[in-house]
Amino acid sequence: MTASSGEVLTAAPLTDSELVAIRSDFPLLSRRALTGQPLVYLDSAATSQRPRIVQDAMRDFTDNHNGAVHRGAHALAEEATDAFEQARAAVAQFVGAGAGEMVFTSGTTAGINLLTTSWAAASRGAGSGAARRFAVLPGDRIVVTQAEHHANLVPWQQLAAATGAELAWVRVDREGRLRLEDLEDVVTARTRVVAFTHASNVSGAVTDVAAMVAAAKEAGALTVLDAAQTAPHRALDLAALDVDFAVFSAHKMLGPTGIGALYGRADLLEAMPPGPTGGSMVEIVTMSEATFQPPPSRFEAGTQAVTQTVGWAAAIDYLTHLGMDRLAAHEAALTARLLDNVGEISGVRILGPAHPSNRLGAVAVEVDGVHPHDVGQFLDAQGIAVRVGHHCAQPIHRALGVNASTRASVAVYNTTAEVDRFAEALDQVRAYFGAAL
């Protein structure tokens, strides 16, 4: 994949024997649904399953190396610190960043809130003179898009409300792709930040990052990339993408919950005032004031989620061993088949591009005459797990003319047989509920 386009390069497909071996690495995939049928898990855009190697790594750390990070001089503390920092280096390398540019958070949402908390402080005058570049003032503009997950929308709404800034957004078209023609009017000279998703968790559409970054740079604005949906599925090179900040989470990329990362260019992190404060991130504390550690420690207040970082590093090792180009090629083939199958079902509308080019394998649908929750329950009764609701993305649903949807999403462990089984079950929904009369 090229770093800016999101298109998949030609890669050798996974063989049947490789896919069998991959599936055997995920214990949960062997379980049966309540009906006794084999489980079909098509909800990885919400939370992916974990290979055994992740669980083993976390168990080994807990059993043999558990200790407080960056505290104490005993062997366990040193081993825990080494494991924690090695995990940081692994995550950073995976996305084309330096270890010092990678801040551990509890997830994508926490990473974005860390930014808005820090920038709100800068807007009140906190930090050194260099922190003024993060100040958001009355009359300034914050730009987002209509495709955002609430995690990359609500924090910016709150920052705008707290500072008197204006919130503006790039609209989506009928396929859920960003209307890049909006950029000229939306990104103005008063714009301070442009925050946007790398791929919609509803439409699956991949963003033209180069166009967004170019518009922001022309305005002198900072860029924040929500890579939660792309990090598990495409090779990322954040330096090549030329974004200023990016966020993503482990639990969507075969790792544990409760751990994610904020990427920031080294010079920007150095200039930013801290967000949450407390232990670990300070240098000198008196009863009246405190000084703070350099990044990334400055932004990691409190006790670190060390076991989760170890698990995340194991997940990254697993993905790296598979090869992100081959993983992407496998998922692209599944996505094409899913779109073809669903596109042939009467009374079902795909909420997003109907062609697999430049989109991910998250396929949300509207079933005419049947509520998404009813669709989800029907599929669950067939042993098929999907996501229903607004997927924490109400604005894009409204833009596409619905309040909620049913979403199937693929991952490296899914098969063509599972995609076919989903489509066959979906084709029965309207008749079951009497909506196909």
Largest sheet: 7 strands, mixed
- The CA-CA distance between the termini, in Å, is 45 Å
Q: Can you tell me the CATH architecture of the largest domain? A: 3-Layer(aba) Sandwich
The overall pLDDT average reads 95
Spatial strand order of the main sheet: 2-8-7-6-5-3-4
| Count of individual helical segments | 14
β content, as a range? Answer: 5-15%
What is the CATH topology of the largest domain?
A: Aspartate Aminotransferase, domain 2
Helix fraction, binned, reads 25-40%
CATH class descriptor name of the largest domain: Alpha Beta
CATH H level, superfamily name of the largest domain? Type I PLP-dependent aspartate aminotransferase-like (Major domain)
Task: Please tell me about this protein's structure.
Helix content is about 35%, strand content about 15%. Helix 2 packs antiparallel against helix 10. The N terminus is likely disordered. It folds into two domains: about 140 residues, Aspartate Aminotransferase, domain 1, CATH 3.90.1150; about 260 residues, Aspartate Aminotransferase, domain 2 (3-Layer(aba) Sandwich). It is α/β, with parallel strands linked by helices. It is globular and about 70 Å long. The strands form four sheets. It has a seven-stranded mixed β-sheet, with helices on both faces. Strands 11-12-15-14 form a four-stranded antiparallel β-sheet, with helices on one face. It has a two-stranded parallel sheet with strand order 1-13. The chain is built from 14 helices and 15 strands.
